[in-house]
Write a structure and sequence with these properties.
It is a single chain. By secondary structure, the chain is mainly alpha-helical. The protein contains 17 helices and 4 strands. It has a domain of about 250 residues. A hairpin with a 2-residue loop joins β3 and β4. The protein starts with a helix and ends in a 23-residue tail after the last helix. The C terminus is likely disordered.
């Protein structure tokens, strides 16, 4: 019965996710575009959740990996390199137009490698010190993107890179509307709706990977490091390798999201990767429920869509006050108030991870009978020769 109920919920959710952009595009592409941006932020939040939520490493420079993936796709999918360097023009006379099947693995690999390089010198840092170092890394990447237009024009500086190719695979160009024809029935699917389905597939794939990581030995090792790194090291966990793996895995998701962002926008510039973006991604993880996948997804969707939805609230208020209140400032004020209210009402996040473990078992267990062995030996949950948990459950968290 329970399996049937879960199957029904799954089918209803799947149908709703598939039909949602088709319904919204009848009201204009703006609403579908908001969904696309929200899905990109979900990808970013899921990647950062590995670093912050699982391993407990505060990363304020996560937007740097987002920028690396975006500029990688921009350089490989635009005429910028062939127009700037004659050597590229000679090798690729028609321009460097790279396939999606090459860009995604390459963005994942490059961003993951840079994530490991960032994590290597910060292995002994935690808390505020780690946050400051990662913040500096994010600012270094942004400054490099701004200044790498001389003596060799690699990033085109503050002007950014334009004319980026849309995503094409299996003869389908996501940058153009697609006419679906079934017999006499025809339906026009807009470009932003096609991107929605691609981003949704990537989000589902990322959620599956994150969930499998969470329940694996690697995930348990990350959580042990998050709770007490010294105790985890005493238990035999290689904390160095685990922290580097967390940085690399989280950064790789950010790189993939960046490449999708560049293709979706057809334009990238350093202004898209400022410190505030990193802060917002961290806020998505914390407000949703740190370390809990449904909460992270919920927080990312709300904080990504809320600024766009509030445009329709701040605009009329701006007009009603005769222009005395700036619409952009009003929008930021509403977002800040919403975040404060959430933290006051739900300090652990909108959808925190459920409480589990011995503390919950003790709370739900009845009081011991006076004179029993449990009452005579307080604090001892199991006999000394009995391993807690089921006998077939692997207890080791050392990969």
């Amino acid at each position: 019965m329970k399996n049937t109920k879960n199957l029904v919920v799954f089918l209803i959710t799947a149908v709703a996710l598939i039909a949602l952009p088709l319904v919204l595009q009848t009201q204009g592409n703006a609403w579908v575009r908001i969904l696309d941006i929200a899905l990109l932020y979900v990808l970013l939040a899921l990647g950062l959740n590995i670093v912050v939520g699982y391993a407990g490493l505060l990363d304020l420079g996560y937007v740097a990996f987002f920028a690396i993936g975006a500029y990688l796709f921009a350089l490989m999918g635009s005429p910028h390199l062939t127009d700037t360097f004659p050597a590229f023009k000679a090798m690729f006379p028609n321009g460097l137009h790279t396939s999606l099947l090459i860009v995604i693995p390459l963005a994942l690999l490059v961003a993951g490698l840079l994530g490991v390089l960032l994590g290597a010198p910060t292995l002994k840092l935690r808390g505020d010190y780690l946050a400051i170092v990662t913040l500096g890394f994010g600012e270094i990447i942004r400054v490099l993107l701004n200044t790498l237009d001389h003596p060799y024009n690699i990033t085109n500086g503050p002007k950014g890179i334009t004319s980026i190719d849309s995503i094409k695979f299996w003869g389908l160009d996501l940058g153009r509307p697609y006419l679906l024809e079934i017999g006499d029935f025809s339906y026009r699917i807009s470009s932003v709706t096609l991107y929605y389905y691609l981003f949704l597939a990537l989000v589902i794939f990322t959620i599956i990977i994150s969930h499998r990581l969470q329940i694996s030995r690697v995930g348990r090792a990350w959580m042990a490091i998050r709770e007490d790194e010294i105790a985890a090291k005493a238990m035999g966990i290689n904390t160095r390798n685990m922290k580097l793996l967390a940085f690399g895995m989280g950064a790789s998701f950010g790189g993939v999201a960046g490449s999708m962002f560049a293709a979706f926008q057809s334009f990238v510039s350093p202004e898209s990767f400022i410190l505030m973006e990193s802060v917002m991604i961290v806020a998505m993880v914390v407000l949703g429920g740190i370390g809990h996948l449904p909460g992270v997804v919920l927080g990312a969707v709300l904080l990504a869509a809320l600024p766009e939805v509030l445009r329709y609230v701040a605009g009329p208020l701006h007009a009603a006050t005769g222009g005395r209140l700036d619409a952009a400032i009003l929008r930021q004020l509403f977002i800040a108030l919403a975040m404060i209210v959430i933290m006051l009402v739900r300090p652990r996040g909108l959808w925190p991870s459920p409480e589990h473990g011995k503390s919950l078992q003790r709370r739900m267990a009845p009081d011991p009978v006076p004179g029993s062995a449990q009452a005579q030996t307080p604090g001892v949950d199991t006999p000394a020769d009995e391993v807690p948990g089921s006998g077939d459950r692997p207890m080791s968290i050392n990969p």
